[in-house]
């Protein structure tokens, strides 16, 4: 049976089968992966039968110990306590935290549930931690945000690709096949597996990419590579950008970033020489307190070279989570309504309210962003109850010890999950839900293509789908049941209607068209005549702003929020390894993956190790102003000497997020996961 991998936004096509009762997986001929999967995709079925998989609701009794409970008891209890919190503290005292792994149907219904059944403005999701900065930059520049505004397969014909802060050789291995023929220019403080395959590797200090991008733009203009005709016809705002970039001569950019001027020249010349070139950004440039401006600076570079909206060239960002794209379009983001509409736009409110059959005035406005929401839990005026669907913030949120304290301060924490994640372990009520191979739905991949997720088998006894959980809660909160369909197709049809006319218009996409194998990229509006073919390539004729032009953004460099000091002289940056996914809640339950990457490490340059008395294989204490992480030292002579790296997939005292500082980007509210000041010292277990 054809479906897609449960993990990342590449959404590799898979074929599921059953052998001796076990689920088997193999890659399909789907164009993004054509016959390949990464190790996580190959082993995904084993999470379906994880030994500690949740199979019955759990509620915590007076003595604080969780015990199994029936569904009616669990849902009645949640509804009763939500009503009590709401009666005492108001509707905004109940909050919802969603995830970019949820199907479109779940994300849509979760947003509707929050606004109607709970009447709360306090809903946001983990996508805020993921690529909200590039989304904000793309919306400003192009008038619409679709991670890749072109199909992945277009990359295969590129001559040069600049990859800034992305490590797809580990985070999306099958994507690398499409990059094989291009010369890669990789911008990463680490010599990653991706950088090893690059024609040119620029190694800036963490948090300095904005200066680097300004330096590259400076060179592009100074060397006569500005595409003047394109800039005049298809863009606005170049002069204001140049008035800043003019001051970023390459030697100045070198001083700030550590990237030699000669390498900056080489990078620009490669891009400018190519007939088909792409600029792609990942979390490395986005997860900063200036991530939006940094992504914008790379967009500026792409615009100056005339790449976006030209066939065979472009700018894009590599969306991360399975439904990272769809998850940010259908209303679980606090400032949005379905169809990628703004919740403060009166016309959008009226449209969506009509589809929902309510008065527009009854819809709440925007609430707090993800970290601000977590930070406010249990405080005066903050939410007192939280429902979590599809995230594990105890491990993945910045300043994790503080976030864990805030979660503990709640009157009620409810977590819907299929495994006992670290966050579920803290919950008052845990609701066991179905997994990918047990449910129907749609996902929107990094190229804006809407895909069908199909059920091979029913969920185990005692387990419900997220849609059933939302329905059960809504009805108990006094909502009419028909507002919360449990059939994914019915939810999708409502989503189509709600998205019609919005930026992410799905109204012309149907389950039947997807079943027939059509490749449908949004926007795909409903038509009265021949069906709309979808839009694999955006911007070929015009950008999505009313005047059809792209906007340069006049940005300038600023330092990371936390400078290094004598006491904390190193930059810590964080990210991913191939064999673990996100907070690890799923992949840490797969034996093969744990064998490949079973514990947290801190990557350190040998000179740095010598300076601080560290040895390969030894445990070290990495500490920032927030707290300390205990990690095993891994020496790597290709790393910068001023930087250490930790993956964030591990729990307990191995959480990289015990270190990170929640300095937020002013526009996207994205936290600064990618740089903070630390020291590293040998760690001895206290006896
Ligand atoms: N194996 C695996 N694959 C995944 C995931 C996973 O958890 N595991 N998660 C998925 C998700 S949700 C996402 S968002 C994507 C993320 O995919 P990527 O963006 O590729 O992943 P990261 O490892 O977070 O960051 C990429 C690189 O940024 C570098 N970096 C750190 N700081 C800086 C900096 O200041 N500047 C620059 N230029 N680079 C910097 C890091 O060294 C790292 O190599 O991966 C998806 N795929
Ligand atoms: N230091 C540092 N921290 C980071 C990052 C970083 O680079 N560095 N990256 C950030 C990024 S990009 C991301 S995307 C976040 C991700 O971090 P998280 O939001 O914690 O993501 P996951 O680990 O995927 O958590 C998903 C949880 O939901 C469950 N789940 C999966 N699918 C479903 C579903 O359909 N329904 C329900 N109810 N549950 C489901 C899983 O079992 C798991 O427990 O981490 C962020 N944190
Ligand atoms: S690259 Fe992503 S979608 Fe493909 S198999 Fe690996 S985790 Fe799954
Ligand atoms: Mo992400």
From TrEMBL:
It comes from the Bacteria. Residues 315-341 are annotated as: Disordered. InterPro entries: Asp_de-COase-like_dom_sf (IPR009010), MoPterin_dinucl-bd_dom (IPR006657), Mopterin_OxRdtase (IPR006656), Mopterin_OxRdtase_4Fe-4S_dom (IPR006963), Prok_molybdopt-oxidoreductase (IPR050123). GO terms for cellular component: membrane. CDD domains: MopB_CT_Fdh-Nap-like. SUPFAM superfamilies: ADC-like, Formate dehydrogenase/DMSO reductase, domains 1-3. GO terms for molecular function: 4 iron, 4 sulfur cluster binding; metal ion binding; molybdopterin cofactor binding; NADH dehydrogenase activity. The keyword Endoplasmic reticulum does not apply. Keywords: 4Fe-4S, Iron, Iron-sulfur, Metal-binding. Residues 315-326 have a biased composition (Gly residues). GO terms for biological process: respiratory electron transport chain. The keyword Iron applies. Residues 1-50 form the 4Fe-4S Mo/W bis-MGD-type domain. It holds the Pfam family Molybdop_Fe4S4. SMART domains: Molybdop_Fe4S4. This is Nitrite reductase. It comes from Streptomyces carminius.
């Amino acid at each position: 049976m054809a479906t897609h991998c449960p993990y990342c936004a590449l959404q590799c096509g898979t074929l599921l089968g059953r052998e001796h009762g076990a689920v088997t997986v193999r890659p399909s001929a789907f164009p993004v992966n054509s016959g390949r999967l990464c190790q996580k995709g190959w082993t995904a079925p084993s999470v379906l039968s994880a030994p500690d998989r949740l199979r019955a609701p759990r509620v915590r009794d007076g003595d604080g110990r969780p015990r199994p409970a029936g569904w009616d008891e669990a849902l009645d209890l949640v509804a009763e306590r939500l009503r009590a919190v709401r009666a005492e503290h108001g509707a905004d005292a109940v909050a919802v935290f969603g995830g970019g792994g949820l199907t479109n149907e779940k994300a849509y219904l979760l947003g509707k549930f929050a606004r109607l059944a709970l009447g709360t403005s306090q809903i946001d999701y983990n996508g805020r931690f993921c690529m909200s900065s590039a989304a904000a930059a793309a919306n400003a520049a192009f008038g619409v945000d679709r991670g890749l505004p072109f199909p992945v397969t277009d990359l295969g014909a590129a001559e040069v690709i600049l990859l800034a802060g992305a490590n797809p050789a580990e985070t999306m291995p099958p994507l690398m096949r499409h990059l094989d023929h291009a010369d890669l220019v990789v911008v990463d403080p680490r010599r990653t597996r991706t950088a090893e395959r690059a024609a040119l590797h620029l190694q800036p200090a963490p948090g300095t990419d904005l200066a680097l991008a300004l330096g590259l733009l400076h060179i592009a203009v100074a060397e006569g590579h500005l595409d003047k005709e394109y800039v005049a016809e298809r863009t606005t705002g170049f002069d204001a950008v140049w008035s800043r970039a003019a001051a970023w001569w390459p030697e100045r950019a070198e001083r700030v970033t550590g990237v030699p001027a000669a390498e900056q020249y080489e990078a620009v010349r490669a891009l400018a020489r190519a007939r088909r070139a792409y600029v792609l950004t990942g979390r490395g440039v986005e997860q900063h307190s200036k991530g939006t401006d940094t992504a914008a600076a790379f967009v500026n570079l792409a615009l100056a070279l005339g790449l976006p909206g030209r066939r065979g060239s472009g700018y894009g960002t590599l969306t991360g989570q399975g439904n990272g794209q769809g998850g940010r379009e259908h209303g679980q983001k606090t400032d949005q309504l379905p169809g990628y509409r703004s919740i403060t736009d009166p016309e959008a409110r009226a449209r969506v309210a009509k589809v929902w059959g309510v008065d527009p005035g009854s819809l709440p406005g925007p609430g707090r962003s993800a970290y601000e929401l977590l930070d406010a839990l249990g405080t005066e005026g903050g939410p007192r109850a939280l429902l979590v669907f599809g995230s594990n913030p105890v491990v993945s949120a910045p300043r994790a010890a503080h976030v864990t304290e805030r979660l503990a301060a709640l009157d009620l924490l409810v977590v819907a999950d299929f495994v006992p994640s670290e966050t579920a372990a803290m919950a008052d009520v845990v609701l066991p839900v179905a997994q990918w191979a047990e449910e129907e739905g749609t996902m929107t991949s990094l190229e804006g293509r809407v895909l069908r997720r199909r059920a091979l088998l029913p969920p185990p006894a005692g387990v419900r789908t997220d849609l059933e959980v939302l329905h059960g809660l809504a009805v108990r909160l006094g909502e009419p049941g028909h507002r919360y369909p449990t059939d994914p197709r019915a939810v999708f049809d409502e989503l189509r209607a709600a998205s019609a006319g919005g930026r992410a218009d799905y109204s012309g996409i149907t389950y039947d068209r997807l079943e027939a194998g059509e490749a449908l990229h949004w926007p795909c509006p409903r038509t009265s005549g021949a069906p709309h073919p979808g839009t694999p390539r955006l911007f070929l004729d015009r950008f999505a702003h009313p005047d059809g032009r792209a906007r340069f953004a006049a940005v300038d460099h600023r330092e990371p929020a936390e400078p290094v000091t004598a006491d904390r002289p190193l930059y810590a940056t964080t990210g991913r390894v191939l064999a673990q996914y996100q907070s690890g809640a799923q992949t840490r339950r797969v034996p093969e993956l744990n064998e490949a990457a079973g514990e947290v490490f801190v990557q350190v340059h040998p000179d740095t190790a010598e300076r601080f008395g560290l040895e390969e294989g030894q445990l070290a204490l990495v500490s920032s102003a927030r707290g300390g992480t205990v990690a095993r030292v891994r020496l790597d002579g290709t790393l910068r000497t001023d930087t250490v790296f930790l993956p964030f997939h591990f729990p307990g005292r191995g959480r990289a997020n015990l270190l990170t500082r929640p300095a937020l980007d002013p526009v996207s509210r994205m936290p600064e996961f990618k740089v903070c000041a630390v020291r590293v010292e040998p760690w001895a277990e206290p006896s």
